[in-house]
Structure formats: C-alpha cells, structure tokens
Design a protein that fits this description.
Mean pLDDT: 98
Shape: globular
Radius of gyration: 17 Å
Largest sheet: 4 strands, antiparallel
Structural class: alpha+beta
Order of helices and strands: HHEEEEEHHEEEEEEEEEE
Strand content: 15-25%
Bound molecules: 2-amino-4-trifluoromethylsulfanyl-butyric acid, cobalt (II) ion
Helix content: 25-40%
Low-confidence stretches: none
Distance between the termini: 45 Å
Length: 257
Amino acid sequence: MKNSYLEKFEKMRIAGKLASKTLDMITEYVKPGISTDKIDQMCHEFIRDNGGYSAPLYYRGYTKSLCTSLNHVVCHGIPSDRTLDEGDALNIDVTTIVNDYHGDTSRMFSVGEVSIKAKNLIDATYESMMKAIKILKPGTKLGDIGYEIQSYIEEKGFSVVRDFCGHGISNIFHEQPNVLHYGKKNTGIELTPGMTFTIEPMINSGKYDTKILNDGWTAVTKDKSLSAQFEHTVGITENGYEIFTESDKGYRKPPYN
Ligand code: MF3
Ligand code: CO
Ligand code: CO
C-alpha cells in the first residue's frame, strides 16, 4: 500500500515536536550556576505537562529523564548536582514518548563563552549531521551517511566515535537499523520510504576511543579530549526526508540568541 507510513509519520511528528520544544524551552536556563539535575527536572515536567513521557526514565535501569553530557563526556551523562560553569560545553539529549511513538533529539549548549576549539568542534559536529541529513532519500545507502560525516570530520582533524551509533526509532526507542557515523559510500542497506531513524554523531577533538565510567552509563573520551553531539530524528519520504525534531525557534547550534 502506498504511503501506508503516513500515520506513523504523523505520530513521529508529534513526539519529535515535543522533544524539540523541550530543548527550546530549556535553552534560556542553560547558564552558569544551574545544576544538570534542575535541567532534568524542568524538562521532565515540561514533557509531562505537554502530554508525553520521558523515554530514558527507567529505561534499562536509567533513573533520570534525559542525558546531560559535559565537555569530555561523549554521551549518557547522568544529571546530578553538578552546576554549570562558564566555558562548559553541554549536550542535552531529550527523548519523548507521545502515543507510544518516540522523538529523540539533542543539541550542544555553550555555557557563556567557550574556547575557540570547543566552538569549532561544536560547529563541525552540527554541520556533519546536516550534511548526512541532506543526502537522505530512497536509494541512499546507510554507508553513505557514515561517509558524509566521517569525511567531513576527519578533514577538520577531529574523530568520529565508533562505540555508539544512531538507531531506528518508532514505537520502539532503539531498533534496527544501526546508523553508523563512519563508513564507505555505496555500502550497507538502501533507504526506503517510511524508514524512521536518528542521526546523532558524537565527535571528539582527540581520539575516538571511549570508556564507560563506574556508574555504568557515562561514556567519556579515553584521552579526556572534548566531545560534541547533535541528534535529529528523521523519516524517509518518497523523494527525500523529513526532520521530525526541528526547532520551532530556529535553534540549530549555539549561540541561540
Ligand atoms: N537518547 C539517547 C539516544 O540518543 C539514549 C539515552 S538512553 C538512556 O539514543 F537511558 F541513557 F537515557
Ligand atoms: Co538516539
Ligand atoms: Co538521544
């Protein structure tokens, strides 16, 4: 049946919109002095007050509503009483559930002024995600996505994290396919209309190796170099793509004012 995925897309749109609105909402509060726990609590309440659930809460034993990954944290940073300092580079990763469907998106935030190096890393990470999104259409292969990101990032002297990847997403949080952020052109499965997945490159200023801290979640760069990430949830259409998690306020990458 043609276009049989339109109902699924409508649900992905609603969940994705709530996730991006949550990041829009929290943006003005991401300032020196706020704790990542406070960010977690405010986003949790916003999501609940707008008819959704936070997907990470109780997901595989996770106890917070979102992830806050600071500086050399690659992903899955756990909100805590740690307060933000001038110069911090923070990723906030929100995943909502509305009517069983998921919206998954993250953005970088610079707390006050960050270093030129951090700025360049954040910019390159955002651009690599968008370069990959722009080639999405039926017939594009998964390896083409990885190639777009890897070639752009390595040209800049940064590295693409291998240990985590994007994922299929719909009424299931993480499903097939794995969307690698490195790869070779014209390899892997072909994209087809109706597919929904995330692209969420994690890019390090140093080497790509990561390790998990003793809390079982927090992934950090092994060499303590800076790491940045952005994430969108997208769907493949008849002749291109739709981004489900675009900001209503035009917030793409910092600065957001
Ligand atoms: N939002 C993350 C992703 O992009 C997953 C977080 S799972 C958690 O896939 F349990 F760590 F929150
Ligand atoms: Co994701
Ligand atoms: Co996410």
